[in-house]
């Protein structure tokens, strides 16, 4: 599936949003995401986006006064309104609504789910990682979505396995942080930091899973 097809698929998750985007607008969005992900927001010009999209630069400025407004008004809403809820709600349903026999089973499903998500939406995830510290408009929706759809369910799973005596009696927030940073650190390395390395993805994920299980299990 191309990035363009992936974007159209995301937009079709919400019929009301789909009606607001013309084919030309979709091409601008696709071009913006592709170039922002490759070069970063600061190093990208609206002229490059226009050329990539096959439109005149004036077409962009007819709707958006600045490059920042393009990021905030097109890319950010697309991610926050479509990819964001899709991420949070599906993430909650596919990972946190299931019943697990063991902590290892939970960690395996969590790592696999996030791997498949990032693999499918790598360009958009790359923009988030690059720009989230500089643009609060990108950060705030995801913090809210995590708190609304994921946090309590994640915490309850940790408490469940602590009561079963499977994992250490540390603060659930601390354990949550360790799980998130370990899995995301591995995935960022595989896809973004060292993407040209000849990674054995299955082996790297298994090492990450074993690291968490061995580090958090009650000895």
From TrEMBL:
PROSITE patterns: HTH_TETR_2. SUPFAM superfamilies: Homeodomain-like, Tetracyclin repressor-like, C-terminal domain. Pfam families: TetR_N. It comes from the Bacteria. The keyword DNA-binding applies. InterPro entries: Homeodomain-like_sf, HTH-type_Tx_Regulator, HTH_TetR, Tet_transcr_reg_TetR-rel_C_sf. Keywords: DNA-binding, Repressor. Residues 45-64 bind DNA. Residues 22-82 form the HTH tetR-type domain. PANTHER family: ACREF/ENVCD OPERON REPRESSOR-RELATED, ACREF_ENVCD OPERON REPRESSOR-RELATED. This is TetR/AcrR family transcriptional regulator. The lineage of its organism: Bacteria, Bacillati, Bacillota, Bacilli, Bacillales.
């Amino acid at each position: 599936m191309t990035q363009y097809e992936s974007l159209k698929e995301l937009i079709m998750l919400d019929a009301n949003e789909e009606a607001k985007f013309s084919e030309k607008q979709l091409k601008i969005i696709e071009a913006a995401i592709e170039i922002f992900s490759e070069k970063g927001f600061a190093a990208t010009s609206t002229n490059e986006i226009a050329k990539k999209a096959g439109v005149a630069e004036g077409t962009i400025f007819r709707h958006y006064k600045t490059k920042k407004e393009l990021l905030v008004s097109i890319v950010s809403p697309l991610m926050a309104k479509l990819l964001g809820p899709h991420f949070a709600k599906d993430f909650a349903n596919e990972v946190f609504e299931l019943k697990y026999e063991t902590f290892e089973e939970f960690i395996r499903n969590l790592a696999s789910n996030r791997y498949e998500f990032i693999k499918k939406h790598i360009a958009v995830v790359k923009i988030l990682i690059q720009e989230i510290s500089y643009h609060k408009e990108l950060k705030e929706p995801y913090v809210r979505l995590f708190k609304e759809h994921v946090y309590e369910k994640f915490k309850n799973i940790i408490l469940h396995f602590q009561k079963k005596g499977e994992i250490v009696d540390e603060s659930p927030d601390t354990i949550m942080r360790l799980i998130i940073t370990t899995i995301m650190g591995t995935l960022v390395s595989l896809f973004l930091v060292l993407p040209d390395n000849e990674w054995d993805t299955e082996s790297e994920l298994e090492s990450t899973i074993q690291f968490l299980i061995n580090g958090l299990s009650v000895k």
